[in-house]
Amino acid sequence: MSDYLQTTRDVYKEAAESPQIGLCCTTTPVWRLPGLNMPQRMLDMNYGCGSTVHPRDLDAGNRVLYVGVGGGMELLQFAYFTRATHSVVGIDSVPEMLDACRANLQTAAEQNDWFTPDMVELRAGDALSLPVEDEQIDLAAQNCLFNIFREDDLKQALREMYRVLKPHGRLILSDPICDDEMPESLHQDEKLRALCLSGALPLEQYVGLMTEAGFGTIEIRARRPYRILDPRSYNTDRRIVTESVEIAAIKDPMPEDGPCIFTGRHAVYIGADELFDDGKGHTLLHNQPLAVCDKTADALKSLGRNDIYITESTYFYDGGGCC
Ligand SMILES: C[S@@+](CC[C@H](N)C(=O)[O-])C[C@H]1O[C@@H](n2cnc3c(N)ncnc32)[C@H](O)[C@@H]1O
Q: Residue 46's closest CA among 64, 27, 20?
């Protein structure tokens, strides 16, 4: 095992044994749902940098895989929606984290009459070699783990998620990204990497690795400020701004003309007719915004028409649209 993976295990063994409030977490509010009570220790062990739980991704009877369990908060949130025995599979490579998660889920069962711990199956395993058979999973999720991996390992982790998902299954990721150039001094720092501070890639590069793994549709669902690595506190001569993103990578077939990447862009037709049809499957009703992927937005823009208005990326895409 590489040194940085061992350092990561050591960091999360410690974080399992004594909760470290503030590690990773960001401004994303914790889900408040009727009848969902979160044990305090589970909240203290919220080591995610966003949310991977979006109810609209889930259907009755779905099987969820969650890699890198932490204190179990998102496992409990997924179980809130799935509510069946072993409907959520949680995998972690740190035995102490699995123990802590198991104990928190036990406490959760005492505080939530709808929840029984057998809804969640915890397995020891590694994101780089998932103990799950091919095409078994409807929805896979990871929160604040993949950013830790070096590029080759990240590619392997994405390939593993792709392998275990059913066709059209969804991988939901929440991770830091960094569009500033990360100084080598920080990039190579194993401890900072393990703490989700210095492994972050530029968004475009990260998305590129997802599409390289085969995911044909990508949705950028949220983008928020994360940590600032400032020369006053870190070994860097310039300020590095990191952000956290929530992304859905969907195992749709890869379109011949490349992936559909939704970043929150819209097209609005404001011409003289009732609608505009681009002849490629996109119909813009008069003055009604249509969410479009970046590929379609660029193609419509290249028509050079002044009766089609195209918005910029908001990075808050929440469904609907052209493809
Ligand atoms: C930053 S924490 C995130 C925990 C959880 N996802 C959350 O949002 O609170 C990273 C998690 O990944 C686990 N982990 C670290 N390396 C792993 C690996 N190679 N495979 C699986 N899990 C790993 C850690 O034990 C820890 O539970």
A: 20
Terminal CA-CA length for the chain: 41
Q: Within 10 A of 305 (CB to CB), how many other CB atoms are there?
A: 14
Distance 148 CA to ligand 1 centre (A): 9
Angstrom distance (rounded) from CA 185 to CA 55: 40
Cα–Cα separations (whole angstroms), residue 249 to 98, 167, 220, 258: 26, 12, 9, 14
For the cut 60, the answer to whether the pLDDT of residue 28 exceeds it is yes
Strand 120-124 to strand 88-92: parallel, antiparallel, or no bridges (unpaired)?
parallel
Q: Is 93 in the pocket of ligand 1 (CB under 6 A)?
A: yes
CB 39 within 8 A of CB 105: no
The answer, yes or no, to whether residue 321 has pLDDT greater than 90, is: no
Q: Is 196 in the pocket of ligand 1 (CB under 6 A)?
A: yes
Structure tokens at 159: 């390939």
Which one of 3, 18, 94, 172 would you pick to mutate in the ligand 1 pocket, going by the greatest count of ligand atoms within 8 A of its CB? 94
- Cβ of 48 less than 6 Å from ligand 1: yes
Classify 3-250 by CATH class. alpha beta
Pocket test for ligand 1, best of 145, 149, 173 (most atoms within 8 A of CB): 145
Measured from the Cα of 45, ligand 1's closest atom is 9
Q: What is the pLDDT of residue 20?
A: 81
Are the CB atoms for 91 and 123 separated by under 8 Å?
yes
Cα 197 to its chain centre, rounded Å, is 16
- Residue 279: count other Cβ atoms within 10 Å of its Cβ: 6
Domain segments of the chain as ranges: 3-250, 264-310
**Is the CB of 153 inside a 6 Å radius of any atom of ligand 1?**
no
| Averaged pLDDT score across all residues of the chain | 95
Is pLDDT at 323 greater than 60 in this prediction?
no
